[in-house]
Amino acid sequence: MGDVLAGFHAVWEFESDSVLIRYERGIRTPKLFQALGERRIPLSAVEGVTLAPGRRGTVVLRLTPRPGADPLMEAADGQLKEGSDPYRLVLPAERETLAEYYADELKGLLTESGPAERHLVAAPEAPLQFKAYDGKASFDGTSVQFRWSWTGASSAKWKAGDQIFPVAGLSGVEWRSPEIFEGHLRLVPRDPGSARSAQPDQDPASVVFGLGYGPVHESLPFAAAVLAAVRARGPVPAVPAPARRDPADIAERIRHLGELHQAGLVTDEEFSSKKAELLAEL
C-alpha cells in the first residue's frame, strides 16, 4: 500500500506485508508509546481489523494481534488501559471514510489467525532497567538481575541476597500492572520443582511495584524483552500452580486492602475485584 495515516499520538505507515507504527513524543502522548518509539507489526501477526466510534468525535482503527505473536501484549495479558493500547489509532470522526478504506485494504491482506507458534513482533531491545519498590531490576539480554533496596525489600529478600537469573533457567514472566493492587514482576523458573513463594514481596524471584515504582512504560517493555528471550530458547516444561496461601495471610491482605480503600487509594471496583481474587485463593 505504501500510504501513511496520521492519528492522535501515532502515525501508521502501510506496507504490503506490515504496518510500521511511529509513536509521537509529547506531554499528552501515553508514556508507553514514547518508550516504544516505533514498532513494525507484520501482517502475519494480525488476525483482525476493526473500526469503531471513539470518544468526543473520534473513530478508532485497531489491529487485533494473534495470541502469542507479540511479547509485549503477551506479557500485558489484557491489563493495559484502553488509552495505552499500542494497536489503537484514534482519528477525528471526519476521517472515518479514509479509515474505513484502510481497514478494508488491511482485511484483504490478512491470511493468518489463531495462536502464533512464535513471537512475530520484535520485543524491546536490551539493556533495560527500572526501579521497583523493593529493588532495581536490570536485563542485559542474557540474564536478569535484582538488587534489593534497603528501604523496601523484605527480610526474606535481604536474607537471600541480590539475585541473578540466566534466561536459560527461566520458563516465563508474570507481570501484574503497577496500576492495580499488588503489582509485581515475577520470574518463573524453568525447573518445575523449584521452590516458589506465593507472595511476591517474599519471593527473591520477584520485584514488587508501588506508587511511582515500576511504571507501566518501564516494567512492561522489560517483561516483554525477558519473555521474548525465554521463548527464543524453545519450549519449556509446564510449571505447576503455586500453593494456596495461608488463611491468616489472606485475612491480613484483605484488611490492608480495606485500609487502602478507605483512604481513597483503591476504587470500589478495584476493592471488590481484588477481594474476590484473594478469597478465591483460600
UniProtKB/TrEMBL annotation:
Source organism superkingdom: Bacteria
Every SHOCT domain range: 252-279
Protein known as: Tat pathway signal sequence domain protein
Residues in DUF4429 domain copies: 12-106, 137-226
